[in-house]
Amino acid sequence: MMAQYLEIKAEHADALLFYRMGDFYELFFDDAVAAAEALDIALTKRGKHLGEDIAMCGVPVHSAEGYLLTLIRKGFRVAVCEQLENPAEAKKRGSKSVVKRGVVRLVTPGTLTEESLLEARRHNYLAAIAEVRGEHALAYADISTGALHVMSLPLPRIGPELARLMPSEVLVADQDQSLSRDLVTDIGAAMTPLGRSAFDSTSAARRLCDLFGVQTLDAFGSFERAEIAAMGALVEYLEITQKGRLPLLQPPQRENLAGAMQIDAATRRNLELTHALSGGRAGSLLAVMDRTMTAGGARLLERRLSSPSRNLAVIHERQEMVSFAVDRSRFRGDMRAYLRKVPDVDRAMSRLALDRGGPRDLVALRNALAAAEEIAGLLQGEALPEPLAQLAQDLTGHDRLLNLLDQALIAEPPLLARDGGFIADGYDADLDESRQLRDEGRGVIARMQAEYIEETGISSLKVKHNNVLGYFIEVTATHAERMLSAPLNETFKHRQTTANQVRFTTVPLSEMETRILNAGGRALEIEKRLYDGLKRAVLDEAPALGQLARALAQLDLTTALADLAVEANWCRPKVDESRALTITGGRHPVVEQALRAQGNGPFVANDCALGDESDIWLLTGPNMAGKSTFLRQNALIALLAQMGSFVPAANAHIGIVSQLFSRVGASDDLARGRSTFMVEMVETAAILNQADAGALVILDEIGRGTATYDGLSIAWATLEHLHEVNGCRALFATHYHELTNLTEKLARVDNATVAVKEHEGDVIFLHEVRRGAADRSYGVQVAKLAGLPASVIERARIVLDALERGEREGGSARDALIDDLPLFSSRPPAPVAPPRSSEVEEALKSVLPDELSPRDALALIYELKSKLPVTETK
């Protein structure tokens, strides 16, 4: 056995080998040590090899999926080695023969299909990067749903596209590992190198044609050589990992970079589109928007949110569908109630195609077809816009398959086909008979006994059973002569004579005995055969079922967006080819929901107007006033508009945004030796080098990570470059008030500020964005709100006053003032006694304004005035 293990392990040296031993997967040697540590299970020993103990650990087969998930998440690959025959067959070759085993599957991050290993509401992409003669392409597939996409793109765009897709695993050519490592590491994916032959475009074309059963790929579109190479590498890797059992991939769809808004990795992270900065889904835009009822609808939402369209026809079509659902509350409610019943069609189909499915996947498809029929009936009663009418057609035409599955399957089947019991009674006569024999063997024998009594006329005849003879007919010795005489002797064959009884058998009884003894196994075999037939019937309808799944996902997303728009009071934006970014009463969807959940009052809505006379707003104001929120909300509104959703505003007019760039927040990248300021500069450089005239750029506090005049200079030059070179729309937030003077020099730059109110030395944030410039940043007041010690705040005020006075009086005067500032004493300052309240304040504490009449209020004013201290006047 160990020789077999070592032979199989040598073929899969880079993976942990799950070696099937009865009801356990066992691991040996270094695999056992690594797995025991990763899974926190016991490490034991089994025999010796080359004089040393063999380390061993194991996991039960029935719970292996949980262990697989843990290992995959910790970066391991797992080769699953199964028994290919039962022990009885092995013994036929000799008592010491080893059961045949072989690896049936390589489990890797990008090739998961099991429901328990995947997030139902997210895609699990396997991607491949190919390069042919300087041209690059990216292909990606989700084998759990069958999606297959490919695109040509320049090398600098690979990183942003990987950030959009967030694949679990990325395939690269051996010689390209160093080039791709940083790109793959940034998104937390596993990188798998393949030999150069896997990316050969000629063999890749043949591989793809064989997969889809065509002579040429022209039927699916015109593909570049690099695109074919990338797709071919995907297919070869799937053949390797699935051991020749390929998933049910859909025909490849070629994507056009110009068809979608381009969003780089830093922008996705800063805007928290699908993940919050904390790393989880909670707090992201996706979490706020996701009201979908189905897993397919949730995945479609994430795709559209990650890749907003630039195609006006597509955007308007999606808006029409959402508007239709918004205007019909009853229709929307009924639709969502039906959609709640829809299982995950795509993943059920994929598991069946890979032979990892079971009866529950067939029942899921039956339930989906039944729900689709109900939804189609609901749509028939409405005057539908064209896009919805097309979706309604995709839901119909599956009556034959639905009837087949409905008749064949019980309501709640077991998980595995090998458990049996999932085919409905009355569907197959042979199965019903086998089940009857299995479950009612005694009754069958009793009926045969009654038939034999009638035939022989011997009322004392019995049909009995023992472990030696099996079933037999027994009569007393006095009746034996009749049984041995013609014509009964032709039917009843003598088997045994005892002291008082004689035993006989018949051919039907022997056959029945065999059938009864084998009834359980035969029933299971029949069910497996019927299961295979049902699976083939489903897979034969794969293209139509794929259309149905996509239609259900679109209907789900449409009604979910409509439900959100109605409840959150979102509006339908006007989207066109203009340069407008005109938003009235815009709100940040995530912040607004958080405020509502916390009961902290309403979100303060704000307007934005870019594209007519000004392309850039220079936004000033204090920290904590809401500048970053304002910047982000306008970027999100543009993004939502182009994905086809309503937006959180009273009114919105969005000219198509080609690229979305965001540089908001501060972070470092210590792993690459980058300081916070270096990260800021790298992201700013990417914006200035890539943004075109159709881009929307939001920049916050450029230059703040370095010395004041260095930072001011960088911010100044950046603003000028956006205006003069990039020519894009931008929102530029800064604390450098000197930049506000640039509005006199740069024609398309306007000043805007976030309003605050100062009261008795404290600052009150109004969160209102207005035209104009701030005259100060209120940093000391914000520091006070944060809880800095009173002594620090007071010292900061003294230093600030000196610096501002020096700035007004000139550089030398400022230096002199700084030199004159008294140094802090080494002793902590004496505590400041809280001020005593006045008589007026004490009197006001007990006043309840709502209970005062006008006369009482006037009397109170006279009373309070009398308590004021008397001041002398000259």
Note down, in words, how this protein is organized.
- This protein is of the alpha/beta class and about 850 residues long.
- It folds into seven domains: about 1-105, MutS, DNA mismatch repair protein, domain I; about 120-255, 2-Layer Sandwich (Nucleotidyltransferase, domain 5); about 295-400 and about 540-570, MutS, DNA mismatch repair protein, Chain A, domain 3, CATH 1.10.1420; about 430-505, MutS, DNA mismatch repair protein, Chain A, domain 3, CATH 1.10.1420.10; about 575-785, Rossmann fold; about 790-820; about 840-874, no CATH class.
- About 45% of the residues lie in helices and about 20% in strands.
- It contains 31 helices and 27 strands.
- The chain has a seven-stranded mixed sheet, sandwiched between helices. It has a six-stranded mixed sheet with strand order 3-4-2-1-5-6, with helices on both faces.
- Strand 26 and strand 27 form a beta hairpin.
- Helix 7 crosses helix 8 (about 225-240) and helix 14 (about 345-355) runs antiparallel to helix 15 (about 360-380).
- It is elongated, with a radius of gyration of 38 Å.
- The protein starts with a helix and ends in a 7-residue tail after the last helix.
- The relative contact order is 0.06.
- It holds the Pfam family MutS_IV.
- Belongs to the DNA mismatch repair MutS family.
